[in-house]
Amino acid sequence: MKANRLVFENSFDVNPRTGIIRFNGNRMVLKSAEALGIFRRDIVKTLDMERAKGFLLRYGWACGYSAGESVKQSYNWNDIRELIMAGAAMHTLEGVVSVEIELLEVDDHKFEMEGRWYHSYEAAEHVRHFGFSEESICWTLVGYVAGFLAKIYPKELVVFEDKCRGKRDDYCSFIVRTKEHAAPEQLDILKYFKEDSLKHELDAAYKQLKELNHSIVHSETIQKQLTNAMLEGYTLNQLLNMLSEGLHSSLIIEKVNMHKPIATSFKTVEDEQYFIKNHSHIRKRLHKFPIMTMNKQLGNLTVIHDEALTREQKMMIESAISVFSVYLYIQAQIAQSQWQRKSDFLDEMLNGQVAIERMIKKARNIFNFDPNKSSRLIVIAVGFEETETILNYLTIEYPSIECFIKNDEILMILEEQTENSKHVKSFMKQLVTKLKNRFKQVTFHIGIGHNSNELSDIGHSYQDAKLVSRFLQNITPSETQGAIYEDFQHIILFLKTTNPKELIVFYEQVLEHLLKHDQQNSTAFIQTLEVFLNNGGNVNKAAKELNLSIPGFRYRMEKIESLLQEDLRNGEGRFRCQLAIKVYYAVRSLQ
């Protein structure tokens, strides 16, 4: 018998009375490719992709073995090569795939065959339900060839798919070799054809389901314990310790964009040192999990664990994160409520409508500073959306200083150790340096108000600090700057009533030519003018202070008046120049 004599009409028989269809003597059932695709989809969803692969390979093997038995018994075959070619023809006639054999070498010791598959229904259906794959997926076709050849060839063969439409190749191709001539990686497919494979897979699936059920119960228990502990008022560190005991791992919680943890539970000193050394990078031992609520990330949970986390551990972590997210969200809401109370307190102090005794009592309940001590308000204007991130940083850096948010600005209450402004300037420089180093892409404008000896005056210190901060924003909008009240006390009244930009324009217009002359000629006319004005326009006193002769001083003042285009003999001219100089020195103090 020749393989090319196998034709559909001779092999296919339909009995319309009984409804039985036979193909090459075997009863067949017609099913659509779409139905087989749905069957494949459900198998994958039930068993997972790896187990479905084994099931479909064995299913194809059973179909191929049956076909091989039928074809071998139905005809007289003088040549095994023709019998093999008949198997390819059978596969094509069944409508499964179009087979084209390119290489076939067979003897008693070696078997080698290569061919192509076109129009594979299996590849098309897999892509339809699962998309393209990273590996070949015509598993029933591979199984069919393996089963067919197992019936007609005595030695064990290895069949594998080299190319596949299911992984974006132009066509599917298969290769068959005797086991001893196959590469080691090609032998891996043989494990799927073992007789006990399905039972093993089902046992493994049952074991995994049992383990999964145990993991679910365990994670739910952890979640319940953490939730109850949170409701009982446990701290975040205490909650973290509970989870750490269950995971047998060290744990850290950090807020977003923060380098210092807000809660830790280290099992060993080595873990703590490892985290300190590596916490800014995700390394092998550090497993990070975001803590989210309402699509907003509140922080990160870091787990220090030597090996990959098990599924049960991951489930426990996910359950715990839901509790941590609630805890951090509640803490954020409490913080915002406290900020609002502190903001309202400052507004009440500015209005001055509440008795001071009552305000002191209220301050003790709201703030952590001593209302009986002198203090200064600090206003930090932030050119950055995440003001809370910066507030969290300042809270960690300055745990003893009151910090909160008011109108998108950060406020700090600095208790005075001494009335010497040098101490305040030193603190301000340190604060500016820390913020610039930590938030390199953010611009800050920091104003520190006057020293308030009484609680009733703290609202005015806040006003002054805010005026200084606003003035800095106008002078250097793209550069971080900080200044204290003493640098601006001579013009603070004008800052309250005048737009800062107008003050800057005013001093530049009044002093422009004088400052340009000093710069170009290395003179000090601006200092001469300042001394003259500070002495109320008294020539004799000003000349004496500068160690100049009266004629020499008058000559210098005539030159100054010509540059200023101002009459310094009347009060209006002297006032304009006095104000311009005060603004000039306030700006200069920042340079």
Task: Characterise the protein shown here.
The chain has 591 residues and is an alpha+beta fold. It folds into four domains: 3-192, Trafficking protein particle complex subunit 3 (Muramoyl-pentapeptide Carboxypeptidase, domain 2, 2-Layer Sandwich), CATH 3.30.1380.20; 202-333, 2-Layer Sandwich (Beta-Lactamase); 354-489, Nucleotide cyclase, GGDEF domain (Alpha-Beta Plaits), CATH 3.30.70; 501-588, Arc Repressor Mutant, subunit A (Orthogonal Bundle), CATH 1.10.10. The protein is built from 20 helices and 16 strands. It has helices at 8-11, 33-47, 49-74, 80-93, 121-130, 139-152, 197-231, 236-247, 269-278, 311-351, 356-366, 387-397, 421-438, 458-475, 492-497, 500-521, 525-534, 539-545, 550-564, 571-588; strands spanning 12-15, 20-23, 26-28, 98-106, 111-118, 157-163, 172-178, 250-255, 263-265, 286-293, 296-304, 375-382, 402-406, 409-415, 444-448, 481-484. The protein has a five-stranded mixed beta sheet with strand order 13-14-12-15-16. A four-stranded antiparallel beta sheet has the order 4-5-7-6, with helices on one face. The protein has a four-stranded antiparallel beta sheet with strand order 9-8-11-10. A hairpin with a 2-residue loop joins β2 and β3 (26-28). α7 runs parallel beside α10 and α17 crosses α18 (539-545). The radius of gyration is 43 Å and the shape is elongated. The termini are far apart.
Shape: elongated
C-alpha termini separation? 103 Å
Uncertain segments are: none
- The CATH architecture of the largest domain would be 2-Layer Sandwich
The major sheet is characterized as:
5 strands, mixed
Mean pLDDT: 84
Under CATH at level 1, the class of the largest domain stands as Alpha Beta
Number of helices: 20
Helix content: 40-55%
CATH topology of the largest domain: the name is Muramoyl-pentapeptide Carboxypeptidase, domain 2
What's the CATH H-level homologous superfamily of the largest domain?
Trafficking protein particle complex subunit 3
| Spatial arrangement of strands, main beta sheet | 13-14-12-15-16
| Cα-based radius of gyration, to the nearest Å | 43 Å
Number of strands: 16
Percent in strands:
15-25%
Count of structural domains? 4
Query: Structural class, from secondary structure content?
Result: alpha+beta
